[in-house]
Amino acid sequence: MNKLIGIRWGDLKEETKEFLLENSTIWDDVKDGECIYDLTENLSVIGRVNCINKYEGDYEFIIDDNAIIYNPKDGKNSESDARDNVIFEIDEVMTVNEAAELWGKSEGAIRAAIKAEKFIPGIDYRKAGRITLITREAMKRVYGKI
């Protein structure tokens, strides 16, 4: 379940959302407004409660698709705290051109390093059509920190 930490709520499959919500709790004293959904002991997400029918006690529980799942035991008490400390996997992959700019190398030098097998295919880099994608971790390993 810890693999869900740092994931956007909207990126979850519907069946995963349903499972988590069925087992979640919210602050008992929240009847309308912002709240924290404790999805499990180690997973929480920020949401809100909207009152649909006050007389019948009907409430709608809403979690924004951009809400970030976090571990409240890490001292995080808000979604923004969690968002500031999350590394998204998509940020760890870039084009060879982007990597060349960041590391001050030529695109050709990185492609030569790929041909010289300094990078592991399928792990460090992959082709996506005409674009070559490479991981930040691989660039650090071969060329050092930025």
Broad structural category = alpha+beta
Give me the number of helical elements. 5
Q: Number of DSSP strands?
A: 7
Choose one word for the global shape: elongated
Mean pLDDT over the residues: 80
Uncertain stretches: none
Report the span from N to C terminus: 32 Å
- Give the count of structural domains: 2
Evaluate the radius of gyration.
21 Å
Order of helices and strands: HEEEEHEHHEEH
Strand percentage? 15-25%
Strand order of the largest sheet: 1-2-3-4
How can the largest sheet be summarized? 4 strands, antiparallel
Fraction of residues in H or I helices:
25-40%
Protein name: Helix-turn-helix domain-containing protein
Domain Helix-turn-helix: 90-146
InterPro entries: HTH_59_Firmicutes_type (IPR045403)
Organism: Clostridium sartagoforme AAU1
Structural write-up:
This protein is an alpha+beta fold. It folds into 2 domains: 2-84, no CATH class; 89-143, Arc Repressor Mutant, subunit A (Orthogonal Bundle). It is built from 5 helices and 7 strands; from the N terminus they run H-E-E-E-E-H-E-H-H-E-E-H. It has helices at 14-22, 79-84, 96-103, 107-115, 136-143, and strands at residues 25-26, 33-38, 44-53, 58-62, 93-95, 125-128, 131-135.
